[in-house]
Amino acid sequence: MTTAESLEALAALSRKYGADPDYVFLGGGNTSFKTDTELFIKPSGVALATIQPRQFLPMEREALRKVFEVAPQVPPEAREEVVKNLQLAAVRPLGAGRPSVEAPVHEVIQYPYVVHTHPALVNGLTCARNGAEAAARLFPEALWMDYCNPGSTLAFLVKEALEAAAARQGGVQPRVLFLQKHGVFIGGNSAQEVEETYARVMETLRQAYKEAGVSLEEPACEEAAEEELEEVAPRLRALLAAPGDPLPVVHCVGRGNAFAGPLTPDHVVYAKSFAFRGEPTPEALEAFRQERGYLPKVVEVPGKALFTVGTTRNDALSTAIALANARKIEALAQAFGGVLYLTEKEYSFIENWEVESYRRSVNAAGKASRLQNRVCVVTGGAQGFGLGIARHLAQEGGTLVLADMNYQGAQEAAEQLNRDYGKNRAFAVAVNVADEESVQKMVADVVREVGGIDLFVNNAGVVRSGSVMELSLKDFSFVTNINYLGYFLCCKHAARVMARQMVRPDSPWTDIVQVNSKSGLEGSNRNGAYAGSKFGGIGLTQSFAKELVTSHVKVNSVCPGNYLDGPLWSDPVKGLFVQYLQAGKVPGATSVEDVREFYMAKVPMHRGCLPEDVGRAIVYCVEQQYETGQAIPVTGGQNMLHA
């Protein structure tokens, strides 16, 4: 095979294991292929699940081997920095990327193909008290290495162990290398050979767990009660926030037990070494911070809920994956004498290791923005104005919740936002804003997923136009129920959650912003149901603002002009252009274009209002700390506040 063909095979092998949660979680692991002169390895920050042949980083093997010549001459406290620089110097071309920290380990394994992963089935063995004895019994041909710190120390010890094993076996290294509390390396002369070896290892372990009566299933969590979540999660968000920072995401995984201690370096990186257990009072969380040096990323409130915490939703969900993996490993390790956790010396090294700091910085890369990591709920967010507003808030750094009766449409819109603005930046919830039970469930779903709300945009609205002498009670009630009653219901349940996030006098302010209308500032001919609901909405805004200010909740309305290009106006069947033409609202109009021009002429800036115009006004409401109870025109000059 040519080198290009070999890299194709390596990429396919990498994606196979990288996309399988039984082998890899959170993008961990690394793979390589080597020729006589070059080592091609997965770069740091690139996921195995998606890696392409061109992404493997070429390293000059002769230059890489200098790690083993130079590093031993360097004082231990400076060795990791020297090794890092030697690895970077071996990259070809120089500066092309940062290789996996385990590149020297791949170099000393004699096989052309090397795959290193952290399967839960394997780590049930490597994290067990009797793991070494069980490995010797189950895999007599494999090499077991007791735990050592990652980095240069690991590379030197692996080199020494492999050379000794090869000397005992006629110059041939073992194909399988188990690293205590860390995973497995498997080498082969071909990609197929690696796959066959992996299959044998995993099948042997499955049989061993079966014989020990240990389930291979992940331990399940029970469902946490909604009322307890809404009481605990918003308050927990506030208590875990550093002063001046946005509130973190608090994600509920259910009701169950947290892990009991640090298992592997990956678990320490993503979930910290220890979870918090107990009632999350300010005193208890501060005591945890004083003891551990950090606030927890996993919180178990006994008998109530189990939470993961992150600065972003993606961070919290990553911690949830690490938590689930840890719980599974703890259960599997019972087959081999119970769990053997990392010692204080071992986990302290990981917590302070520069390489893992770099890894965290890659995962958290991104500049600060105006709505940085704030949870923003937008009702009516599946399409039109709501989706346009949501997109603008995502551009400003928000975590978006698209709430809509059209749940499938909201899901599709959220998926598109995730593609455009980053993994797990948006998700969908179902809601009928005119139904209290549905609104209550929407808020509960948001709290379960992210812990609370920072910005609630009450955007869902409908229009039914017609003369007061002809409009049906059904249409009038429909408009009123969505635009007026729906606003009340959403404020009622969202404000309860927001108020619980105020735990100190200096707790951050949160915001409710109603997307009202210019028709809430001035009556609308043959559109009384809509204008009345919007006038009433401003009355609610002013009243709620006076009440909720003591809970650090600001309440404002933004009053857009006409979104002439949106589906509300332009839909060829139900759009307002069609409705207004049929209702005779525009004198002399004989076509939809006549109606459009009539409304365009009313705007001094001579264009319709756009979602980004409203998005900017909403962000203004959030940033303005001395503004509540206001109705802000966004009309291109069509409606102006009066002195």
Task: Give structural notes.
By secondary structure, this protein is α/β, with parallel strands linked by helices. About 45% of the residues lie in helices and about 15% in strands. The protein contains 24 helices and 18 strands. The protein has a seven-stranded mixed β-sheet, sandwiched between helices. The longest helix is centred in the last third of the chain and has 28 residues, at about 475-500. It is elongated. Mean pLDDT is about 95; it is low at about 355-360.
Brief write-up:
This protein has 24 helices and 18 strands. It is of the alpha/beta class and 643 residues long.
Counting DSSP H or I runs of 4 or more residues, the number of helices is 24
The value of Rg in angstroms is 30 Å
Q: What can be said about the biggest beta sheet?
A: 7 strands, mixed
Proportion of beta-strand residues: 5-15%
Protein structure class: alpha/beta
| Helix proportion | 40-55%
Shape: elongated
Point out poorly predicted stretches. Answer: 354-360
State the end-to-end distance: 81 Å
Mean pLDDT: 93
What strand order characterises the main sheet? 3-2-1-4-7-6-5
Multimeric organization: single chain
User: How many β-strand stretches?
Assistant: 18
Core attributes:
single chain; 643 residues; alpha/beta; seven-stranded mixed sheet; 24 helices; 18 strands; 14% strand
How is the secondary structure organized here?
Elements: H1 3-18, E1 30-34, E2 38-41, E3 57-60, H2 61-64, H3 66-70, H4 76-90, H5 103-108, E4 113-117, H6 120-126, H7 131-138, E5 143-145, H8 152-168, E6 176-179, E7 183-188, H9 191-212, H10 226-239, E8 249-254, H11 265-271, E9 276-277, H12 282-292, E10 298-301, E11 305-310, H13 313-332, H14 344-351, H15 354-363, E12 375-379, H16 384-395, E13 399-404, H17 407-421, E14 426-430, H18 436-450, E15 455-458, H19 473-500, E16 510-515, H20 528-548, E17 553-560, H21 567-570, H22 576-583, H23 592-600, H24 611-623, E18 631-634
Parallel strand pairs: 5-6, 9-10, 12-13, 12-15, 13-14, 15-16, 16-17, 17-18
Antiparallel strand pairs: 1-2, 1-4, 2-3, 4-7, 6-7, 8-11, 10-11
Helix pairs in contact: 6-13, 10-18, 11-13, 16-24, 18-19, 19-20, 22-23
